[in-house]
Amino acid sequence: MAQANPAATLANIYRTPELWEKIVFTALCLLIYRVGSHVTAPGVDVVAMMDFFQSQGGGGFLGLYDLFVGGNMSKATIFALGIMPYISASIFAQIAGAVFPTWEKMQKDEEGRKKITQWTRYGTVALALVQAWGFALFTESVQGAVVSPGFSFKFEMAWVLTTGAIFVMWLGEQITERGLGNGASLLIFFSIVERFWPSAWQTFNFIGTGSVSPLAILALVALMLAVVAGVVAITLAARRIAIQIPQRTMARGRMREAARNFIPLRINASGVMPIIFAQSLIVVPGAVAQFSGNERMRDFSDLFVPGTWLYFVLSAVLILFFTYFYTSIIFNPVDIAENLKKQGGFIPGIKPGAKTAEYIDEVVSRITLPGAIFLTIMALLPVWIADAMAVPFQFGGTSVLIVVGVALDTIAQMNQHLLLRKYDGFMKKGRVRFRGRQTSGDIFSGG
To answer: Are the C-beta atoms of residues 330 and 345 closer than 8 Å to each other?
Structure first.
């Protein structure tokens, strides 16, 4: 199959009104988010805040949180909390669906999902208020960061940051509904990419001062490229289950069966969401503990600071857990088995119905494990290597995984829009490939 022409693909995007409008709308939302990242919260000395974060070397929970919000925390902007309160509330809502049967029943109903969405918004407001008050306390503890400390400053800061978090949540929802891609993931993607250039410039300064050797930088660049290649490979990899759908037609008086079809089961069906969920559960409580000013809470949170062995263990456990958890949410073997049965199809050697669902669930469980292990290794291995090479800055596989994963998901959505209009997509002309074999974007694809 011939490769798609990039120039022709871009022209096709422009000639697809719906897709072009989605791209423009998403870009405008991201531009608004970028503008808000330069509006400082009232009563804060930005220079003092940035000096404090620089003195910390960008490490710890605050540095990791600051990475996910695009540096808004270190600059004390109105978007200092970013999209993190909304993601945390969404995690709690999804976990509740797996724990409480009533909540799970609501998730399957249209009206129930609307109620859960509304409750998630309320949870976002509550979490944002707690984090905003904690950030106000933390800001007062930074030497020279607050012009007029006191209750009025804390109240004003909490109100401004909570409002900013609600507005960012609204932006994310608007991107998801009217734009292109997942709004929350794109905001985190944009926040991380936004800091790539300052980090690259800082890296060149390290080389100039002799803090790090050019050989070490080349090794890290090679590692980053390997991570990117690995993420792309595991994202596109799929296990194909052969199925037969007996669509019989008359041919010279005889009945013949249609060609065999396949169900492509992605090895990493959950994408990059387990990474985002895991980091959210680690970063937010740790950051709140740092904000609180309580020495016991700070001492406990210091045990799980990024770079410690407890942080690595907790990250690995959470990534493995959320990979299985999120896959179980977005992938329902029972629905696939029922749809297959309605079409008169079956998996050779497997009875239709419940047995088919059990077989698919077993296959998904087996292939999810290597995908989860891969995500864990890709997220943690670069940090270990950077520490072993004594690089004076943080190089995390987590940020690379999020950027590549969100980019692939967004491109896949663009590709789907183009395929619906018989245009060439970004990945391959007319079709997306899974390990060298062609398959359409539907659940059942022709062989």
So the answer is: no
Distance of CA 112 to the CA centre of its chain: 25
Dihedral over alpha carbons 343, 259, 351, 365 (to 10 degrees)? -100
pTM confidence score: 0.76
Local structure of residue 439 (DSSP, 8 states): E
The whole-angstrom separation of Cα 277 and Cα 160 is 26
Amino acid at 315: S
For residues 318-334, one letter each, b for 16 or more C-beta atoms within 10 angstroms of the residue's C-beta and e for the rest, the string is bbbebbbbbbbbebebe
Residue 196's Cβ-side half-sphere holds a number of Cα atoms within 13 Å equal to 11
The CA R_g of the chain, rounded to the nearest whole Å, is: 24
Query: 10 Å Cβ neighbour count for 226?
Result: 13
- Angstrom distance (rounded) from CA 87 to CA 183: 11
CA dist., res. 107 & res. 129, Å (int): 27
Is 304 in a helix, a strand, or coil? coil
Q: Which pairing describes strands 249-251 and 254-256: parallel, antiparallel, or unpaired?
A: antiparallel
CA dist list (Å): 193 to 155, 307, 402: 32, 22, 10
Per-residue pLDDT of the chain (447 residues; tens, 9 = 90+): 445 566 666 777 777 788 888 999 999 999 999 999 889 998 898 888 888 887 765 566 777 788 788 888 889 999 999 998 999 898 888 888 777 888 878 877 888 888 999 999 999 999 999 889 988 988 888 888 888 888 999 999 999 999 999 999 999 999 999 988 889 889 988 888 877 776 667 777 767 776 677 777 787 778 778 877 877 887 778 888 888 776 555 555 455 555 567 888 888 887 778 888 888 888 777 777 777 667 777 777 777 777 778 888 888 898 888 888 888 887 888 888 888 888 777 888 888 888 888 888 888 888 888 888 888 887 777 677 666 665 555 555 677 778 887 888 888 888 877 776 654 444 444 444 444 343 333 333 333
CA-CA-CA-CA torsion for 106, 325, 236, 338, nearest 10 degrees? -50
- Are the beta carbons of 250 and 401 closer than 8 angstroms? no
C-alpha distance from residue 240 to each of 306, 366, 437 (Å): 38, 13, 10
DSSP annotation string for 223-273? HHHHHHHHHHHHHH-EEEEEEB----EEETTEEEPPPPEEEEEETTTTTTH
Both tokens of 194, joined, read: 């936004």
Query: Are 78 and 160 within 8 A, CB to CB?
Result: yes
